[in-house]
Design brief:
With 479 residues, the protein is an alpha/beta fold. The chain has a 9-stranded parallel β-sheet. The chain is 45% helix and 8% strand.
Length: 479
């Protein structure tokens, strides 16, 4: 028996386990399956009082990367303990009784990178300890809290006040009964984060209630993935607030708004702004959007700079919303209205593939040697680094028109990566006619890369320099 297992077994035995059970629990904590320490309902049914204190001593010895605490009773199947019951009487002191605060406060001493809490009544004291653990843990990146008693702590301002001091990039607060008019302290904490990338507030039906969308406008600009599915957006003013945020946040690439009970009149501003964002994917499934909404969505994502290739407009949402008769809500657009929408998504899917190719090229380019870069102009072009290679290899104009295995010219990869100004500089050209010939191959919408306008003036200026240089060289040779 290893030293760590011997120590863990002794600690568990002193906490109240039998020798056999202590050895088994020690194994489960020190070497968990898939690196996940899973403390579920069955675990707690057989665990002694204040087990969290003992686990706080053992977890630092564990190889676990993930901690999951789930008190859901499997006897009840999918039925959850009502939040009102959880907060008021039934098991409200569970977290304190099991000393889970001690366990969560010990996170900085462990290798834990993600924490998942489900259907737990923890209380202010435990959340305060959790907050300390989060703030001091350098390796913790993900925190997800599902159907827990957090709202009273949010209301009194004691819920995770130090979240912004942490390195947490992925934060979820799902189905916790969070209401918008009580989120100000929480949002102040989230807004200060400089590393937050993913936020999941789904299934909090009252999230936008009485807040006019202020919740979403307070999110930091670092957020790339936002999930507010099953959060009711039933008025126009809230929708305008949501639209304003997704337009301003240029880092946002994924937006989930499924089952938000949005009708076309409410969703119009959101739909119209989608074409001016940097989103790749948006989930609008399970709302109440009709043919007109489908047409507006098609127009929005068909804009030249729009990248959205997935809207899930007619798909079934993961968690459907229901009306008063318990019928699942869904978008009502007819198939005829969806034809053009599908075509727009397909066009943007091509843009997404270009993006993926460029991201891979950036990785490949960094791994290449100098000689490999000279021999592989396509990777440099896709990575937006063609200028660096042309500084080492003289430009051959015809090479710009050669195609790769997909039939794309090197020049096309250059303009797709926004690098035309790296190619059409005077130092790369000795012949103005050749320069003009290649320039004529560039679509006008990409020529603006030269100066942000139409590119014409900058190109003519550079071409004139090439002409002057060639003339001076000719005169010099004539002497």
């Amino acid at each position: 028996m290893s030293e760590n297992k011997l120590k863990a077994t002794n600690l568990l035995y002193k906490a109240g386990y039998s020798p056999e059970d202590a050895a088994k629990v020690a194994d489960d904590i020190l070497s968990p399956a898939d690196g996940v320490v899973n403390l579920d309902y069955n675990f707690f049914m057989n665990s002694p009082k204040e087990i969290g204190k003992t686990l706080a001593e053992i977890l630092p010895m564990s190889e676990a990367k993930s901690l999951k605490i789930d008190e859901h009773n499997p006897v009840f199947g999918f039925t959850k303990t009502p939040l009102t019951v959880m907060r008021s009487n039934c098991g409200k002191d569970f977290g304190k009784y099991k000393a889970l605060g001690d366990l969560l406060e010990a996170l900085p001493k462990t290798k834990i990178e993600s924490v998942y809490l489900n259907e737990l009544a923890l209380g202010d004291e435990v959340y305060t300890q959790f907050s300390k653990g989060i703030a001091e843990s350098s390796q913790l990146k993900s925190v997800k809290i599902v159907h827990c008693d957090v709202e009273p702590s949010i209301v009194n301002g004691s819920f995770l006040p130090n979240l912004a001091k942490s390195g947490v990039e992925d934060f979820g607060l799902v189905d916790c009964g969070v209401r918008g008019n009580y989120t100000s302290s929480l949002m102040e904490n989230l807004a200060k984060s400089k590393v937050l990338k993913s936020v999941d507030f789904s299934e909090n039906k009252g999230l936008f209630r009485d807040s006019s969308g202020e919740f979403i406008s307070a999110l930091p600009s670092t957020v790339e993935n936002l999930n507010v599915s099953n959060c009711e957006i039933s008025d126009w003013h809230t929708a305008t607030q949501v639209a304003a945020h997704i337009r301003q946040n240029k880092n946002l690439t994924d937006l989930k708004m499924a089952s938000c009970k949005m009708e076309e009149a409410v969703a119009r501003d959101i739909i119209n702004v989608l074409g001016d964002t940097n989103l790749w994917r948006v989930d609008l499934s399970g709302n109440q959007l009709d043919d007109r909404a489908a047409q507006e969505l098609t127009e929005s994502i068909s804009r030249e700079d729009c990248r959205i290739y997935e809207t899930r407009f007619m798909e079934k949402p993961a968690v459907p919303a229901v009306d008063m008769l318990r019928q699942e809500m869904k978008n009502t657009a007819e198939e005829g209205s969806l034809t053009e929408l599908k075509k727009a998504e397909e066009r943007n899917a091509i843009k997404y593939q270009v993006y993926l190719d460029q991201e891979q090229a950036k990785v490949d380019y960094e791994k290449q040697s100098k000689e490999e870069r000279k021999a592989d102009l396509y990777t440099a072009a896709k990575a937006g680094k063609i200028g660096e290679v042309l500084a080492m290899v003289p430009l051959k104009p015809n090479d710009l028109l050669k195609t790769d295995e997909k039939g794309k010219t090197l020049l096309q990869h250059v303009w797709e990566s926004g690098s035309l100004n790296q190619v059409f500089t005077p130092k790369n050209w000795s012949n103005a006619k050749e320069m003009q010939r290649i320039w004529n191959e560039v679509p006008k919408k990409f020529q603006k890369q030269m100066d942000g306008k139409d590119g014409h003036d900058s190109f003519i200026k550079n071409k004139s320099i090439v002409t002057a240089n060639a003339l001076r060289k000719s005169l010099a040779q004539g002497r």
